[in-house]
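Researcher: Re-running this chain for the archive, since the previous output was lost when a drive failed. Same request as before.
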Amino acid sequence: MKSCLLSFNIYLLAAAALGGGCGSHYLSPNKEYATLSIFLQGRPADSLPVQIGPDKATVYVAPTPVLTEDDLAKARLVDNPDGSYAIQLTFDDNGKLVLEMQTTSNPGKSLIIFAKFPPKGWTEPKDADAPAIEKPHPGQPRISAWLAAFPIPRNGLANGSLVFIPDASHAEAEHIVRGLNNMVSAMNKQK
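Model: Regenerated structure tokens:
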């Protein structure tokens, strides 16, 4: 079973996020866009198994995201002095509330973070036998990824921000952050 989210064309998804065709003119073909879905960890009986991290640990993902790029205020790449890096997501008022409610009511679970970050002008293959978007051909850049399984702290997250180490290269993390901020900017123009 595959989530419908994984098979959407980024531009169709963006158009839907912007309220259909009326807002899609804010998406420039010369910019990178990214989408974000944050899911709660689910139970094996009713969830999608995905592999995350360099060790490809299997985690189970609830079928519906609790947060998306619609709930995002901004994204930022955090470069640490030791050469490591993280992605910081700061949510809008609605996103802060949802983040706090979902994390305080689900201690001990994880937030599973997925992003789709295709290059400018990308369109999804129409061939039914084409490889899945999260598994590119060798030598091809990824255009989507399960980025992290973030353990929910005992007291939840009440500050409206989430910082996680992505299972992504630095270049991919930069692309994701740039794409998310471009998407947030486009959605704000539509409002």
